[in-house]
Recover the amino acids of this structure.
């Protein structure tokens, strides 16, 4: 039996963590986002100045695409657009 780390969202395209592995992967993604915010925007200092906001947004887009591609096989029921929650 294959262990799934994520469940699909009820509406739209995406997934939510349901196991500790899924939560860990999500926390790693959030860590990369904070690291990018620190490097690109100097976000964690007292004087926040936007050095390169476009690069930060590109980082977020790249992280999201990589995260989705790597973990799409760990989503219960597959990753697809959904219009409603599944009835079980």
């Amino acid at each position: 039996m294959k262990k799934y780390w994520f469940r699909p969202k009820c509406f739209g395209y995406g997934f939510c963590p349901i196991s500790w592995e899924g939560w860990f992967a999500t926390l790693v993604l959030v860590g990369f986002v904070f690291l990018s915010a620190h490097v690109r925007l100097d976000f964690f200092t007292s004087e926040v100045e936007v050095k390169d906001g476009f690069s930060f947004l590109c980082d977020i887009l790249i992280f999201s695409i990589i995260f989705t591609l790597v973990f799409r096989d760990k989503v219960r029921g597959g990753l697809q657009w959904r219009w409603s929650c599944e009835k079980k």
User: Anything to note?
Assistant: DSSP finds two helices and two strands in the chain.
